Amino acid sequence: MKIIKKIFLLSVFTILYSFNISAQCPASGYWSINGLTVNFYNTSSSFSSSSWDFGDGNTSNATNPIHTYASSGSYYVTLQIGYPFYTSYGTFTSYCSVGGTITVTGPTNIYGCTDPTATNYDPNATSDDGSCTYIYGCTDSIATNYNPNAGVDNGSCIYPNICGEITGVTLTDIIHDRVTFTWDDMNDSSCVVDQIRIRYRAVGTSTYSTKTMGSPVGNNNTCLNTSKRILNLNDSTKYEYSFKIWYQDGTIHDWHSEGTFITLDRCPNITNLAVTTPSSSRAKFTWDNSNGPYSFVRIKIRVDSISNPTSNSWFNSGGFGINYGTFSSIKNGLVPGETYRAQAKTWCDPSGGPYKAPSWTPLIFWTQPSSVRLDGGTSINNLDVFPNPSRDLFSVSFSSEDVQNLEVRIINVIGEVVYTENLNEFVGQYTKQVDLANYTKGVYFLEITADNGVINKKIILQ
Fold first, then answer.
1. Which residue from 438, 443, 283 is spatially nearest to 364, judged by alpha carbons?
2. 212 beta partners
3. Residues 348-363: pLDDT tens digits?
4. Would you list the domain boundaries of the chain?
5. Eight-class DSSP state of 269
């Protein structure tokens, strides 16, 4: 059963407002006012619920709510509670209310300038009336025209000339024996670089090496350098470095922009370079990688008897180089009976360049055989080429005592085939006239390959 009792007691207090009811309703409460904000307190006994109506259209079910009114005025506030009511028929919930009128007053507005950067700022003003006035100027204390009285910066600040330390330092092209430094151009309309110096040393050592750009100091010439390559470093070594800069206005920045770098390991060379001669015009080179991996190896060859060799006296086996993983190379077009020398060097950059073994391998020497004897005895007889030398036509003749498959080729000194003919199950006399008039003058080789070997003969086209 729901029993509702509404009993109102109106009381007015000057500081603390309170209200209660007789024993029939246990509701009671009070409030305290601070401007437009009121703290309400429910002091009822034995209640199970409470509901406040603040008289301005707002309510709360909190026991002790805090409410801020939007404007000054008098408001009728009610507190309704639910409490247990005991009868012979059982316990019921009864409801009763108390109420009273409160008066709230907001603070009085003080009009004036509320901006602390204004010259007429009023710290007591609570409402800005648009009367603020300002002093415009430079508000940055490090500027040469700093105005301590300015409240608003107008972008007029002027700064002293400051020639700074080197910036933007980067390191590139680090390999086993070198590094390249780059940095920002420190020259501008007010700062002119006189000299830049880099110092570097292996970490743990006491002595620096230096590289200087724009020396001597005071030369009145602008130092425009923004990069420097340093050579002759040690491989697998950690270095430390720093910069120093002089400007023509006398500004000096001592050692700064410090850093470290580590050079790469030395590029390992091949080992056990060896040569064999499978034919009178062919050499086969072999080697191993017991020193470690690399990118490619280059083998250079020249005739041993050249008295004053130049770089053009050398030629390569395998072209630009033989990639790592291949450990042999064939060189064709060598001169029968000629003595040669060869040596090799590795590169650890697939594009070539300076990242390579520090030296060539030791020289190896060999002599190409004048002819190659066929296994089981000679089965090609009476080999002849005439005229030799010739301007165009060569007559080739030989005889075969046995039935065999033959390949007749003419190749140039770089191994290119300029003539070829296959003779299947050939026996007897062979005669052929070959025209080389359209080919470059020089040395060529006649090569006859049989089932059991190869015979070579040098021919000269004049």
1. 283
2. 197
3. 999 999 999 999 999 9
4. 2-104, 170-262, 271-367, 380-461
5. P
